Structures are given as structure tokens and as C-alpha cells.
Amino acid sequence: MPVLSLTDVSIQFSGPPVLENASLHIEKGERVCVLGRNGSGKSTLLKLIGGVYAPHSGTIAFPQGGKTATLQQDIPETTDDDVYAIIARGFGKDGRTLNQIRSGDSERELDPETQWKMEQRIERVAAELDLPPEARFDSLSGGMKRRALLGQAISAEPAILALDEPTNHMDIDSILWLENYLLKSKIALIFVSHDRSFIRKLSTRIVEVDLANLVSFRCDYDTYLRRKAELLEAETKNQLAFDKKLSKEEAWLRRGIKARRTRNEGRVKALKQLRAERAARRTRLGTASIANQSAQASGRKVLTATDASVAYGDRTVLKPFSLEIMRGDRIGIIGPNGSGKTTLIKTLLGKSAPATGEVERGTQLEVAYFDQLRAQLDDDATVFDNIADGAESVTIDGRNRHVITYLQDFLFTPDRARASIKTLSGGERNRLLLAKLFTKPANLFILDEPTNDLDTETLEMLEERIMEFPGTLLIVSHDRAFLENTVTSLIVISPEGEVTEHNGGYEDWLARQNAPKTSAPRDKPTKTNWKERPRRFTKREQSELDSLPEAIERIDQRKAEIATKLADPETYKNEPAYADEARNELAQLDAESDRIFERWEELESLKSSLSTS
Hints:
Blueprint: E1 4-11, E2 19-26, E3 31-35, H1 42-49, E4 57-61, E5 68-71, H2 83-88, H3 93-103, H4 112-128, H5 142-154, E6 160-164, H6 172-184, E7 188-192, H7 196-202, E8 205-210, E9 213-217, H8 221-254, H9 265-280, E10 301-312, E11 315-326, E12 330-334, H10 341-349, E13 356-361, E14 367-370, H11 383-388, E15 393-396, E16 399-402, H12 403-408, H13 414-417, H14 426-437, E17 444-448, H15 456-468, E18 472-476, H16 480-486, E19 489-493, E20 499-503, H17 506-511, H18 539-566, H19 569-574, H20 578-612
Parallel strand pairs: 3-7, 3-8, 5-6, 6-7, 12-18, 12-19, 14-17, 17-18
Antiparallel strand pairs: 1-2, 1-4, 8-9, 10-11, 10-13, 15-16, 19-20
């Protein structure tokens, strides 16, 4: 018997139905991950299950009793409550009464047995989550506050626990703890996430919100990806066959007289049905098309910090550190929430002055900065106006494009492009900021938590574009798969504000730690210890090495095109300024070629030395 049953559920706001005659049955102990494009209805599904929305038709039932508990995303800004009181709130009205009894101002009494059971459950949950019941909520770290809110959600032993993007804004230690806690728990789980590492670790089943329906895949995430690709391929073939048949029947009808004979009325009727089916076909959004705009190459040294530290008043945020970031480096920045990752970026960019030491920025830097607070978006403007400040077009790689057309590359329909950004979802706001970011030529990309709320397809497209970006890259992220796929080294900030550099991606760094992967984050920070482990040539480095010959070939091809054009006398008649432009471009191409050959030699040397060590 399932713990949750949705049967023929439909819900519609404005526009087409979000869910239409959708059914879903979840068994005890299942961990169901809900996937789908931004705006497909994932959060709506969770709100239906949690009772926030009522379906317009169909039923939602809990055959074994109980209800849904939802882990809230937002952490209360301030409260006088202790951990015990936070967990007690999960019991609703009785929990509020219990808290009033504890504070001595309740006019209502609880049944003694009910009160005793609640108190036992709260103490057991606090112990299970390794939370001190008497600790003030406001004094806890961000990760521990999340843990207390999880205790609130599970305190009344719900039939199913719903999580909407639970890893957003969580540091890696907290994510690892949550993963392992949920793996040990027997509670049924339904969650929305775009964190592929989290999905791979937890999910026993995938449910996809697709064209207002729920499609269930009883398999792990990687098997789902393979099956989904096969289904999409089959669907494309079926649609092509359908469209071919429709086109053939339309041509037959246009020939005229035969179609009007009585014996062909059935064929005409069938054609009308084909037309209706084609008109009713709901097409999926395409994949975001993200193109980089490369600026001229920066100087060889991009950013240099020498004995720099950062302090706010008497509090030291970052202890003295020295860094040298070179052109072409691809660096991830990780550390607990509040450790100073964004502060480090602002210090390196000159937005904040170091308390001691100095920071130098290289020459010819053109920076594109993706701000996790989305401060670069104007909430009072439309999507359209946020891209080009009211202009009708943007220049992308030297070519003018209408803003509406450009926004379609980022999956904004013309109607959506004219909407206020106040109406956008978190994923849409992220896509808009990426669209704005990529209108600016840059040789240094700084991305501060770029993956929050992005659907998986857009996330993978962003990864591909980042891998093609020829400049320097700094990424702050808690998305382990994203880091593993995009960076070749890490800057790690400890809870004490120590800044250290490490070669390799996230998995290399994790393997060098003494602490097991499942260790929980601690209230009191401890100094990170490192294993002595042989350095290996990473997948990202091999991928970069494999791409270099093609990059050199592209440069040589472009230089040949310029030489051919310069050899044509007509060029000087029609484009008098071309010679100067060509000279500048050739100088940039030569500089880029030198950089690639230098990087090629560096990687080959590194690979050779590691294979013989």
C-alpha cells in the first residue's frame, strides 16, 4: 500500500494546465527525485502534495495515514527560540502550546500522555540530528540551522518528506551530512533538485514533469538519462512520421475534386483529426543556447595577492594569504558558508581593500561577474530592458541581434521577454543574468553560485560553454559535479579563514582529506588535515589537453583567412581601415597561439612527470 497516492490530478493557473490528469503513487521508503525544466510544474507538484494548493480535479490521499512535511528553504532571520522550540513547532497547534507551557504563559493544557510523547519525540529527534536542545537557534551556523528545521519537519513523523532544492545555499559539508542522514532514514522522500551528485546519491526513482504529465522511471539517475535519450529519439522519429503523413494528406486535399467525393469523406474526416492532433501537440522548450564573447587576451598574470588579509573591525575574515592567478587558470573556490568566499572575490577585484598586504590586477582585464545576490538585475524593469538598458539590439561577436531573438536563446518567449522580472522564478532570473553576462566581452569570468535553480539541461549547456571559454575562470560553487566538470584547481577557505590552493578537481581534493566523506559539519571549526596522496592527471586536464590542437588549428585557419583578404587589392578599396584592424587581430591571434603552445607544453610535461612518478 502506498504512503501517497495522486490520482488523475489536474491544476491550472493562467495558460495551459500545469498538470493534467497526472497520477503518482509512492511506496514507503522510496526516495523520489522530481525533474523537469524550469517552469514545468515541479514546485507546484510539491505544493499540491504539501496541501498549499488544492487540485482542480483528481484526488490526493495518504492510504497509510499521516501527511506531508516540507523542509522550508528560508531560514528565519532572527528568533528567540531554542532548538527544542523550533523542533516542537512541527507538531502544529500542540507544539505551540507545548512551547507556551515551557515558557510559563500558556492558558491551555495538553493531555499528559500526548505531552509526554511529544517531549520524548523532540528529544529523540534532537539527539538523532546531533543538536543541543537548549542551544539558541540564532547562535547556530547556517548548516546547523538547516538541521534544526529538518528536525521540525520530521518531528510529527510525516507520511512523506518533501524537499524543494534542499542543497541551494548549503555548503558542501552540510550537503554531505544531509545526504547521509536521508540515506539512513526510513522516511519516504520526494525532492526537487538539480544537484546531480545529490540526485545520484539519494534517488531510488525518477519522476519527470513533462508536458503536464508525470512520467515515472524506476531506476537510478544515470539509467534514467540513458532511457530518456532513447525516448526522445523515438519521439522525434514518430513526430517526423506524423508530420510527413499530415503533409501528404494536405497535398491530397489541395488536389481538390477527389477529396469532395462521398467515398472520401472518411479520409477528409481523418485529415481533420490529424490537424487537431498537430495543433494540440505541446512542444518542449528547447535547450538554452549560450555563446561566449571572448575579449582580447589579458596579461599573463591576471590577479596576484601578496600577504593579503581581510578584516571587518576587530574580526579577521581571511588570514594573510598569497595567490597568483595566471591567464587560462580554471579555479573553483570552496569553503563553509560564511567563510569568506565572496569576500575573497571582492578583494581580488578591488571592490574591497585588504587590511594588510596588497592585491595587484593584471593588464587588459575585462571581467564578467555573476553575482549570487543578482544585484545586477533591475527589479523595476522588464526582462527585455534588463538586457540592453532599453536598446532594441545587442552586439554578440560583432553581430547585431535583436534582444527578443537573443533572449530566445535563453528560453524566454517573446511574451516572457516583455514581462517584469519580478514575475520570474529563481531559475529564470539565473538564466536572465547569464544572458546579460554573455553580452559582455570578457577574458575573466567570475561566477558566484551560478547553478542555483538552473534546470539540468541549462546547467550542462553552461558547463560546455565554460569549457570552451579561452580566458580565466573563477567559480564559487557547492555543486560538486559542476566543479568536477569545469575546474582544474581549487582555492579552499577553512572556517578559520585560512586560504590554501590545491591542484586537481573536487574529487582529488576530497580524496586527500583525512576526514571521511560522511563526516558531519561541526559547530566548532577544526583545522583541515591533509593526506599525502600522489597527484594524478585529472579528467579536466586531459580534456583541456585534447582540445588544444583544434584550438591551434582554428587560429591558423583564421590567420590564413586574414592573409588571403590582405592579398586582395579590392580589400584596400572597399575597406581602407582593414589593414590596421587585421594587424591588431593578428597580434591577438599570435598572443593566443603562444599561450596555447605554452599551456600545451605545460600539460604534456605534467602528464609525463605524473605517469613516471
